[in-house]
Amino acid sequence: MDKKLTAPFKAQLLAQRESLLLQLATLRGGNIGRAEASAEHFGHTEDSRAQVTTERELELALDERETAELQVIEAALQRIEAGTYGLCTECGVDIAAPRLHAAPEAPRCIQCQEKAEHA
Predict the structure, then answer these.
(1) Tens digit of pLDDT for each residue in 26-74?
(2) Between vectors from CA 92 to CA 91 and to CA 98, what angle results, nearest 5°?
(3) How confident is the model at residue 111 (pLDDT cuts 50, 70, 90)?
(4) Distance (Å, rounded) from C-alpha 81 to C-alpha 101?
(5) Which residues, at least 6 apart from 28, have a Cβ–Cβ distance to it below 8 Å?
(6) Which residues contact 82 (CB under 8 A, 6 or more apart)?
(7) β strands within the chain, DSSP E
(8) Inter-residue contact 65 to 71 (CB < 8 Å)
(9) In 3D, which of 51, 63, 61, 58 has the Cα closest to residue 25?
(10) What's the predicted TM-score (pTM) here?
(11) Which of the chain's termini has less CB crowding within 10 Å, N or C?
């Protein structure tokens, strides 16, 4: 896919990345990590140990999901720069335009994505 065709997807991916980074900064309370923010939020002595553990595990799970989402966006941006954006990373066929419009970070065509989800 040439640069002219990838420009709208790149803009959408950059906007998604910026939004996610802003969300992370807001949820973390600035430039601290989620683990530190979790300790600040849930380290009150009146909280039960089980409650603190559960809430900390939830914070860490959210951090992992957000980090994975950022990695997927970054990978799509790298594919744009490499000139391979829009090609399935598994089989190499063109990813359908409606799929890219719905999920511009998608690395696989529908068929390969279905296989990956059921594997």
Answers:
(1) 766 655 555 565 555 555 556 677 777 777 777 777 778 888 899 999 9
(2) 100
(3) very high
(4) 18
(5) 34, 36, 37
(6) none
(7) none
(8) no
(9) 63
(10) 0.74
(11) C
